[in-house]
């Protein structure tokens, strides 16, 4: 099996990557698995820039193939916020509930049409000695007026998926892995991974 490090300690994210990459013959490791504890400063202005910073830093430190993602919620009414600050929107301590409550508070009194939003995910694939490659995935939807659903993580309970009458947190893992922004970006990344595999 080919080892690939996913540049996160977030178990929810690792689970999604494993579901898609393990059947392709990859041994997926998280930062916790390899005891990587360095704090990487995400100084990029976009999801893509931050994903590249993380992937290249960890690949350089470990000499391994690394996939890093930077993803978040972009709400039109809020001018694209929380955007790259999604994980720490309500403060430096990452708190999913506080973050989504802040978004709900900022959207109080708005109609559904003003609550359009999308999840974006940028993935960076860093392989030692090669140029880093990136892909992006997007899923469109709306912000609900209250959280709904117990699956997923982050903003999933308040993100109503367009064309479905369910929030991301009401979908099963299988359904989410088919339509999520991360799944979209990963499908595109799979094509890049195929190019990395020895002929």
Automatic annotation (TrEMBL):
Cofactor binding remark: Binds 1 Mg(2+) ion per subunit.
Keyword entries, A-Z: Coiled coil, Hydrolase, Magnesium, Metal-binding, Nucleotide metabolism, Nucleotide-binding
Superkingdom of source: Bacteria
UniProt: Mg(2+) binding residues: 41, 70
Alphabetized Gene3D superfamilies for the sequence: 3.90.950.10
Family assignment from sequence similarity: Belongs to the HAM1 NTPase family.
Membrane-spanning intervals of the chain: none
Species for this entry: Bacillus changyiensis
Assigned EC number: 3.6.1.66
A single GO molecular function term of this UniProt record: ITP diphosphatase activity
Reactions listed under catalytic activity: ITP + H2O = IMP + diphosphate + H(+); dITP + H2O = dIMP + diphosphate + H(+); XTP + H2O = XMP + diphosphate + H(+)
Catalytic site: 70 (proton acceptor)
Record InterPro entries: dITP/XTP_pyrophosphatase, ITPase-like_fam, RdgB/HAM1
Role played: Pyrophosphatase that catalyzes the hydrolysis of nucleoside triphosphates to their monophosphate derivatives, with a high preference for the non-canonical purine nucleotides XTP (xanthosine triphosphate), dITP (deoxyinosine triphosphate) and ITP. Seems to function as a house-cleaning enzyme that removes non-canonical purine nucleotides from the nucleotide pool, thus preventing their incorporation into DNA/RNA and avoiding chromosomal lesions.
Protein name: dITP/XTP pyrophosphatase
Coiled coil (UniProt feature): 90-117
């Amino acid at each position: 099996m080919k080892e690939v490090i996913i540049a996160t300690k977030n178990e929810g994210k690792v689970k999604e990557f494993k579901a898609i990459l393990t059947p392709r013959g990859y041994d997926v490791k998280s930062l916790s698995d390899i005891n990587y504890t360095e704090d990487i400063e995400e100084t990029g202005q976009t999801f893509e820039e931050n994903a590249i910073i993380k992937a290249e830093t960890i690949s350089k430190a470990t000499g391994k193939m690394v996939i890093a993602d930077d993803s978040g919620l972009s709400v039109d009414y809020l001018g694209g916020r929380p955007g790259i600050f999604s994980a720490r929107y309500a403060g430096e301590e990452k708190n999913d509930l506080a973050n989504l409550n802040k978004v709900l508070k900022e959207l109080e009194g708005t109609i559904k049409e003003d609550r359009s939003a999308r999840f974006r995910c940028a993935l960076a694939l860093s392989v030692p000695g090669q140029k880093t490659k990136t892909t992006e995935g997007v899923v469109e939807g709306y912000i609900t007026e209250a959280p709904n659903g117990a699956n997923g993580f982050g903003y999933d309970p308040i993100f109503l998926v367009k064309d479905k009458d369910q929030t991301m947190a009401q979908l099963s893992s299988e359904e989410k892995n088919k339509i999520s922004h991360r799944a979209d970006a990963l499908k595109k990344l799979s094509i890049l991974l195929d190019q990395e595999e020895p002929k």
